[in-house]
Amino acid sequence: IGRALSLAESDGLAIRRDVVALIAGVPGLDMAAASKFADRVARRDGDAAWHTATDLATRCLADIVGSGARGTNLAARGYTDPEAAALRRLGEAASLDRWVEVWEKTSRLFAQTDSASLDRKQAMLSALGAIETTARTGV
Q1: How far apart are CA 25 and CA 10, in angstroms?
Q2: 0.85 cut: is pTM over it?
Q3: Range 88-100 average pLDDT
Q4: In what helix (H) or strand (E) does residue 45 lie, and over which residues does it extend?
Q5: Half-sphere exposure of 53 toward its Cβ, with a 13 Å CA cutoff?
Q6: What is the DSSP letter of 11?
Q7: Contact 27, 20 (CB under 8 A)
Q8: 18 by DSSP, 3-state: which?
Q9: Predicted local distance difference test score (pLDDT) of residue 44
Q10: For residue 1, what pLDDT is reported?
Q11: What is the Cα–Cα distance from 111 to 118, expressed in whole angstroms?
């Protein structure tokens, strides 16, 4: 119930839709859409939106890893069929080890951003850029 309330307070459904669409769109990340999204969730007065976005982004990465490692049913995790197919496609674009590295790097980046009051927009764009690079090059 607490998670549902948090999502409702932070416009979580729209943030979820945007996070999944951005990640599912790589390679070929729409930088204008990514920048607009990062602006929206990076506002200092929008802590709930920021935490929702970072949580959802790291969960997407964890789901890419889980799908590759254990064959996790992404539909059961709440993804639509096209979203699940896009995440599975991403999982196949690079090795499982590489996706684990991206997940760890992204999680660490978001934690450092929170603890050191770093630029949230830049952190989100860096995370999306790492996902884009991995999907595009496989490394």
Answers
A1: 23
A2: yes
A3: 95
A4: none
A5: 30
A6: T
A7: no
A8: helix
A9: 81
A10: 60
A11: 10
pLDDT tens readout for residues 8-51:
666 888 999 999 999 999 999 999 999 999 999 999 888 989 99
The sign of the dihedral angle between the CA atoms of 66, 67, 69, 71 is: positive
Q: Is 73 left (phi over 0), alpha (psi -120 to 50) or beta?
A: beta
What is the distance between the alpha carbons of residues 77 and 130, in angstroms, rounded to a whole number?
Answer: 23
DSSP annotation string for 65-123: HHHHHH---TGGGT--HHHHHHHHHHHHHS-HHHHHHHHHHHHHHHHHHHHHT--HHHH
Asked if 53 and 19 count as a contact pair (C-beta separation under 8 A), the reply is: yes
Tracing tokens 């096209």 back to the chain, one arrives at: 82
Q: Please determine, for residue 137, whether its predicted confidence score (pLDDT) is greater than 90.
A: yes
